[in-house]
Amino acid sequence: MAIKVTLSFKENNINDVTLYDFLEKKAETIGKSAYIKSLLKEQMDKEIKERQK
Known about the structure:
Layout: H1 14-26, H2 32-51
C-alpha cells in the first residue's frame, strides 16, 4: 500500500518555479518521488542525531 502526498508548485511564484526546476534536474536518474524521499530521510536522520547529543 502506498501513501500519496500531493505537492504543488504554482507557476506564478518564482520560488516554486525555481524549486520545481531544481527538482527536475536532480531527479533525472532516480525520479522525483525517490529524490524527495531521500531528502526527507537525510533530514530525519540529521534531526535524530541532534536529539541524541
